[in-house]
C-alpha cells in the first residue's frame, strides 16, 4: 500500500509570492492533517480535513489555507509568503480521529 | 536535509546500550500517547502508543512507560542500533479531540 505522498519535495520562493503544496493520503484514509515543522517551534498543527470539510484549525494566520477533494487528496496554500514561513510542511493521514498518524516526507519550503 | 535536530535535547549512546527517552506531557486530561521517530529527510513514523488506563506497553525492542501522577512518559529502546539514530517525539491527545499535541523532540545519536 502506498504511503502518504507529498509534492513537491523542495520549493524555493521569494517573499510576497504564494505557494500550493499537495498531499495524497493513504488509500482509504479520509482525515488529512497539515503540520509546520521548524527547528525553533517543533511540530505545529495547521489544520485538519475530513470528508472535504475543515474540522480543526490551528493558530496560524489566514494566509494559510487548505482544502480537501472528494478523493481525500488535500492541498494547502500559503499566500504573501514571509521569511518566517520557511519550514518543512508535513501532511499526515489517518482513518479518523488522528489517533495514529501516517506522515509523508514533507515539502521543504524556503522563502528568500 | 532538514535541520530538525537543532535546539533539541540530545541523547548519545553506544551501539548495544539501552536508551531511555523522556517526555513530560502537559495536559492531565490526555488519555492517549504516541511516540514517533523521525529520521533525517523523512516524516515522523509511528513507533508505539499507550492509553491512560495502562502503565506500560511493549513492542519490538521498545517499551513505553506512563506515569500519570507526574505526567511523564518514557520510551525505552533495547540494544540500540545505529539505525535508531533519529529525532523522537512524544504526542498526547485528549479524549474527544482529533488533534494530538507534539512535544519538542529528543535527538538520539547512536555511536557504532
Report on the structure:
The complex is a heterodimer of chains A (112) and B (112). Chain A is mainly beta and 112 residues long. Helices cover 0% and strands 54% of the residues of chain A. The model of chain A has no long low-confidence stretch (mean pLDDT 94). Chain B is an all-beta fold and 112 residues long. Chain B is 0% helix and 53% strand. In chain B, the strands form two sheets. In chain B, strands 1, 3, 4, 8, 9 and 10 form a six-stranded mixed beta sheet that branches. A four-stranded antiparallel beta sheet of chain B has the order 2-7-6-5, with no helix packed on it. In chain B, strand 6 and strand 7 form a beta hairpin. The interface between A and B is medium-sized, with 29 and 27 residues.
Secondary structure elements and pairings:
The complex is a heterodimer of chains A (112) and B (112).
Chain A: E1 5-7, E2 10-13, E3 19-24, E4 31-38, E5 42-50, E6 53-57, E7 64-68, E8 74-78, E9 87-94, E10 102-103, E11 107-111
Parallel strand pairs in A: 2-11
Antiparallel strand pairs in A: 1-3, 3-8, 4-5, 4-9, 5-6, 7-8, 9-10, 9-11
Chain B: E1 10-14, E2 19-24, E3 30-38, E4 45-51, E5 56-58, E6 62-67, E7 72-77, E8 86-94, E9 101-102, E10 106-111
Parallel strand pairs in B: 1-10
Antiparallel strand pairs in B: 2-7, 3-4, 3-8, 5-6, 6-7, 8-9, 8-10
Amino acid at each position: 500500500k502506498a504511503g502518504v505522498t507529498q509534492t513537491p519535495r523542495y520549493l524555493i520562493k521569494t517573499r510576497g509570492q504564494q505557494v500550493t503544496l499537495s498531499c495524497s493520503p493513504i488509500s482509504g484514509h479520509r482525515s488529512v492533517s497539515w503540520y509546520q515543522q521548524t527547528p525553533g517551534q517543533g511540530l505545529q498543527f495547521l489544520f485538519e480535513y475530513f470528508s472535504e470539510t475543515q474540522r480543526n484549525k490551528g493558530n496560524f494566520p489566514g494566509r494559510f489555507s487548505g482544502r480537501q477533494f472528494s478523493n481525500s487528496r488535500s492541498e494547502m496554500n500559503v499566500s504573501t509568503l514571509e521569511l518566517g514561513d520557511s519550514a518543512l510542511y508535513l501532511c499526515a493521514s489517518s482513518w479518523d480521529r488522528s489517533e495514529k498518524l501516517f506522515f509523508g516526507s514533507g515539502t521543504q519550503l524556503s522563502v528568500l | 536535509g532538514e535541520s530538525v535536530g537543532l535546539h533539541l535535547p540530545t541523547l548519545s549512546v553506544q551501539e548495544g546500550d539501552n536508551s531511555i527517552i523522556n517526555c513530560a506531557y502537559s495536559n492531565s486530561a490526555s488519555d492517549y500517547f504516541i511516540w514517533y521517530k523521525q529520521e533525517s529527510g523523512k516524516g515522523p513514523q509511528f513507533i508505539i502508543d499507550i492509553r491512560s488506563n495502562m502503565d506500560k506497553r511493549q513492542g519490538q525492542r521498545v517499551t513505553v512507560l506512563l506515569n500519570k501522577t507526574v505526567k511523564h512518559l518514557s520510551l525505552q529502546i533495547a540494544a540500540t542500533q545505529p539505525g535508531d539514530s533519529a529525532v523522537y517525539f512524544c504526542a498526547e491527545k485528549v479524549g474527544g479531540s482529533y488533534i494530538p499535541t507534539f512535544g519538542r523532540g529528543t535527538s538520539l545519536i547512536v555511536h557504532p
